[in-house]
Design brief:
372 residues; alpha/beta; binds zinc ion; 34% helix; 2 domains
Length: 372
Amino acid sequence: MQLFKTFEVIKETVETGLGMYPCDLKLANVMLVNVFSGEIYRSNIYIKNDRIVSIDPDAELQAHRVLDCNGQYAIPGFIDTHMHFETTMLSPEALASVVVPHGSTTLCADLMEIANVAGRPGLEEMLKSIDRLPYRMLVEVSSRVPTAPGLETTGAILDAEAVAEIMTWEESISLGELDPSKILFVMDEYLHKIADTVAKRKIVNGHAIGRLGQELNVYASAGVSDDHECVTIEELLARLRVGMRVLVREGSTERNLDALIKGVLELKIDCENLLFCTDDKHVNEIQEEGHINYNVNRAIELGMEPMQAIRAATINAARHFRLDDEFGSITPGRKADVLLAKDIRDIQPTTVIFEGKVVAENGNLTEECMLG
Ligand SMILES: [Zn+2]
């Protein structure tokens, strides 16, 4: 995976924008959902390799291929901010055929079970197997390998040193769901894991089931940035108050979106620090109702503005992981992850573009994409 811009990428993007080479793809006649400015307007999207070159409505750049989008909405690819790959019970390839047609192009995965069984080599194999697939997997490096030290026999241990080393990988974006007891009992090993993570300007994911008040303040003070375990609006508000973002979860075992979003709308809470995740969602339910697009559509159905719901699934998430200069919006220089959809209140992508390539159409992966 090449997540960050290199000299060559920057130069080619700039020179293409200056008209020195043709673009690879022009998405003509879209209603651009600009999550940065909060506007929706008619434009064209120009793409070279895996990057967006221009969204200027008046630009007249050449392109090898022009796709007439007939005024469909162009929405940034959706981001699942916390999921466990293992719960889907699918191979990385099979998972692609289920989540990508629904518009999820980035999965932030805590590979806790794989790490507990196969350790670092297991993580490396997962990343290798995903490299050619039509989505991006970013790693929330598991803080709990083993999950219950002393009470289980695991295939591997990721101690502070191992976590620090894995955190140097480009794909590693955070320290995965940190149990509050590790902080409240002041366990140095875990504080080292946090310190090594934040020193690399990466973040720490929370897992603060039921914690409130001073306990929650102590937990946040260690450097924990988010929580996906909120069940009530009181818990959601308490986390925002201590500077933690909330991952509104809608999976198979836990369905928290209705209660949280209804509360957010009722109390008129600012949505900037809300993101979406599935955590654990089974394949049959992904197929039936969707993936992150389900979170977005349901939030809209409950009364959230489409722009706010789409932001929670895109730019808010990218900003949280400090990756918004690489993806999460349809703006120049970012990865070209774009969904085309006819209805902005019920987003069912007709076309999914990942890193500049059309990877899904009308609910299925494209043939080119299946062949790799
Ligand atoms: Zn989880």
